[in-house]
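Dear colleagues,

As part of the handover before I leave the project, I'm documenting each prediction I ran so the next person doesn't have to rerun anything. This entry is a single chain, and its sequence is reproduced below.
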Amino acid sequence: MDPAADGSQFITLIELLDGPTYITVGQLASAIEKGGVYGWDRFGRFKKSDDQNAIKKDALNALAELMRDVTAWNRDPKHCDPEEGLLDEFPLNDLHIEGAHPLQFFGWPKREIPKFCAPEGAESAPFPSHLGVSTNALYNIIGALLDVASTKRERPMTEAQLIGYLVEKYENNYGISKSNLEKQFARAKRMLDRSMKDGTLKQQIPP
């Protein structure tokens, strides 16, 4: 089956970068340099990269462009507030949106997903190096959700009601604000959805 004709059979570089497996830019670049990658050539033909087309070069250029954006974002001091702005405008946030980045045009059929080498180092990670600063905020959110889950209620709350309740009860706790909860809940739902859809993919990618 031509993976180009069936999106469910084709895993894009975006899905690997922005999915639950957290494959790094460096790991993708190494896999492409070693074994090539599938994509569309300048005539719109879907094929694997070789010496006769520029698919490998174009894929590596797209990864390099993303890495430059991540590095620039990482060095900008305005992104150092993990509660209100850590992920705002982060280069990887919108990669999954169709048409947002050229990386959507490169990848592998599921049956040919390469075995990725160990990460080359922190500079290859797709997420900013200071992302760990937000750990306390995330733990506060998880703790608040556990408290809600252990409290008996007559009826379940909607997401908006849950956010309102958490903000009212835990507003003095770091990371718990309406804007941040909306942001983190939306990201968590996207990640869980992709994780559920990619159950077979996780078996092919070594930890």
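The two ends are 28 Å apart (CA to CA). The mean pLDDT is 76.

All the best with the project,
I.
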